[in-house]
Design a protein that fits this description.
- This protein has three domains: about 110 residues, 3-Layer(aba) Sandwich (Rossmann fold); about 60 residues; about 150 residues, 2-Layer Sandwich (D-amino Acid Aminotransferase, Chain A, domain 1).
- Helix content is about 35%, strand content about 25%.
- The radius of gyration is 21 Å and the shape is globular.
- It is of the alpha/beta class.
- A hairpin with a 2-residue loop joins β8 and β9.
- The strands form four sheets. It has a seven-stranded mixed beta sheet, with helices on both faces.
- It has 14 helices and 18 strands.
- α3 packs across α4 and α4 runs antiparallel to α5.
């Protein structure tokens, strides 16, 4: 299997967001390509901080709490470590860096486009317009406020309620706000009441498999894409991919993805999510950032984070074709399988737990065991807390 370009001995990268699985995948991918990568993290026990792929660990402030301090800390850390590339591993980090790129010296390349472009790509209220202009089909979407419900706005249930942006100010600080499935008016009122401005985007809940177009763009031109289809997500209603397989490119979707990235003038990683409905694939989300199942693309061939670093350094990345049929499993896929077993019958659903040779995991890697040990410790601690809570009821 082909991987990214030859090792970059001496090239140093400062990476944020390795507290999460996507960031861990980016760290491992950069290490595989030969980049010496320092993990900037709020948690010294995070996946990235424990990984063998990290050249070192830099304590950093939370970009949601103190974006200014976060970027100042990164600029100082880049100077100390000699890093010439800074990569955001979360949307909060991307937003903070886009607004403050001027804090870095000219010799440091920052993986965040202009703030206007970032704001545009992250604004979910604009996504329908961008998607249709690119050639995607989208579900019916309505901007709804609590006052609209008072005026008798009609909503078909079950429905999905989305924030206007994934990262929004709530209770005085930036927070990541998740999508919610609602089955009736009371639940819709509660969901809107909890959103900033008491407003959100409402779509009918769609049943179907998730398909994604993932890739890397540079100044609006798509460098490469990797297509995958998800068998399961967790949580089941509005969760992230827990088991997926790379599939052949759909030419129409691939062309639409290229047009979307061109219209957004995007530079960086991207993850376009679609749902396979009876009328065809419908675009439901865009994540212009490091994403949860990034490890699958890297294992299948294109080392997207290393290619991103190459481009930021003014190099031409080596583009390889991805392998169709490679699989990805997140460690919480077990919950998705057990949930399916309760609803569909144990025998057929539990077959999903069968190990598959060559499967890439979100955390598990026999060559990098410490993040897995940390994950197991967290699961055990969580189970102990649940047992203790039940015993004290």
């Amino acid at each position: 299997m082909a991987h990214s370009r030859p090792p970059h001995d001496g090239d140093r990268v400062l990476l944020t967001g390795a507290e999460y699985t996507g960031g861990l995948a980016a760290l491992r991918g950069l290490h595989r390509a030969g980049y010496r990568t320092w993990v900037a993290t709020t948690d010294p026990h995070s996946y990235g901080a424990l990984s063998r792929a990290a050249a070192g660990v830099v304590p950093i402030l939370d970009p949601r709490v103190d974006p200014e301090g976060f970027v100042h800390g990164l600029a100082a850390a880049a100077a100390r470590t000699g890093a010439t590339v800074v990569l955001p591993g979360t949307e909060a980090g991307l937003l903070a860096l886009a607004d403050r790129r001027n804090l870095f010296p000219a010799g440091v390349a920052v993986g965040a486009p202009d703030a206007v472009l970032v704001a545009d790509a992250c604004d979910k209220s604009l996504l329908d317009t961008h998607a249709r202009a690119a050639g995607f089909e989208v579900p019916p979407t309505t901007h709804v406020t609590l006052s609209d419900l008072d005026d008798g706005a009609a909503v078909t249930f079950p429905a999905v309620v989305k924030p206007l942006r994934s990262e929004m100010i709530r209770n005085g600080r930036l927070e990541r706000i998740e999508v919610a499935r609602v089955t009736g008016l009371d639940a819709l009122v509660a969901a809107l009441h909890d959103l900033p401005g008491q407003a959100g985007l409402v779509q009918p809940y769609m049943y179907g498999r998730i398909r994604t177009v993932n890739g890397l763009a540079w100044e609006g031109q798509v460098v490469t894409t990797v297509h995958k289809r998800a068998d399961r997500t967790w949580p089941r209603d509005c969760g992230v991919v827990s088991f997926a397989t790379t599939v052949a490119r759909d030419p129409a979707l691939d062309e639409a993805a290229k047009t979307l990235m061109a219209n957004l003038r995007w530079s960086g990683l991207f993850n376009i999510q679609l749902i396979e409905s009876a009328s065809g694939p419908l675009l439901i989300d865009l994540n212009p950032r490091v994403y949860h199942s990034l490890a699958l693309a890297i294992t299948a061939g294109p080392n997207l984070p290393a290619m991103w670093a190459d481009l930021l350094l003014g190099r031409t990345p080596r583009v390889v074709e991805y392998e169709v049929g490679r699989t990805f499993r997140a460690e919480d896929d077990v919950y998705a399988v057990l949930s399916a077993a309760r609803s569909r019958g144990a025998r057929s659903a539990l077959s999903g737990l069968r190990p598959r040779h060559g499967t890439t995991h979100a955390v598990l890697d026999r060559h990098d065991p410490r993040p897995t040990r940390a994950l197991v410790g967290r699961v055990v601690s969580g189970l102990r807390r649940k047992v203790a809570d039940r015993l004290h009821r």
